[in-house]
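Renewal narrative, Specific Aim 1. Our central claim is that a sequence can be written position by position from structural information alone. The example that follows is taken directly from our test logs and has not been curated for this report. It begins with the structure tokens describing the chain, in the order in which they were read.
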């Protein structure tokens, strides 16, 4: 199968595993992580008031908050938790699709995970840069900024490596399917020569027609 330009930017494996095995592992790990995150954030609905009381986002103590402040923070907490649960539901579904697609060579089932992980990588990159630059603005937090940049960069690189594993599998599946399509098409366009049999006294002769 001829190599395409994209073949120069793909991986051959995921650590010591093949791309198929690595993608299946990433899918199951993503599903398990999302499943427990959904349970944890769902249980936090029962303790929203306690979460609000533990926050220190204003100069007021929780006892001095007005009913409007409490109602606003209560609704904001419900909205944020609901958004997080929705995000993890999407991640769980995308991970299941990834497992199925990697196990049964269905490349289109890899697309939801790739899209979801692309959004995550963009978000993590912005947060990583923002935290690093913010902590660099004060001489007292330069040390924290260096640590956050280093460890955040390692985590970001690992997430990008995981993304490249699934993306590489997607590219290889696409190229294999395209090669198979071209092979089948060539077989239909150029069938093998047809021969007819002629019986002669000296023996059997095959003539190409």
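The sequence written for that structure reads:
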């Amino acid at each position: 199968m001829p190599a395409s330009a994209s073949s120069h930017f793909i991986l051959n494996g995921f650590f010591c595993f093949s791309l198929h095995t690595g993608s299946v592992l990433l899918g199951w790990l993503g599903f398990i992580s999302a499943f427990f995150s959904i349970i944890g954030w769902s249980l936090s609905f029962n303790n929203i008031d306690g979460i609000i009381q533990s926050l220190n986002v204003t100069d007021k103590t929780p006892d001095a908050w007005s009913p409007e402040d409490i109602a606003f923070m209560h609704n904001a907490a419900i909205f944020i938790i609901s958004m997080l649960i929705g995000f993890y539901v999407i991640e769980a579904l995308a991970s299941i699709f990834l497992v199925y697609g990697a196990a049964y060579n269905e490349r289109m089932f890899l697309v939801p995970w790739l899209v979801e992980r692309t959004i995550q990588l963009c978000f993590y990159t912005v947060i990583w840069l923002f935290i690093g630059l913010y902590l660099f603005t004060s001489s007292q937090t330069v040390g924290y900024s260096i640590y956050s940049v280093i460890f955040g960069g390692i985590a970001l690189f690992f997430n990008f490596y995981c993304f490249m594993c699934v993306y590489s599998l997607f590219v290889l599946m696409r190229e294999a399917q395209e090669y198979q399509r071209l092979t089948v098409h060539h077989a239909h366009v150029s069938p093998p020569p047809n021969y007819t049999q002629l019986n002669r006294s000296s023996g059997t002769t095959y003539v190409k027609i």
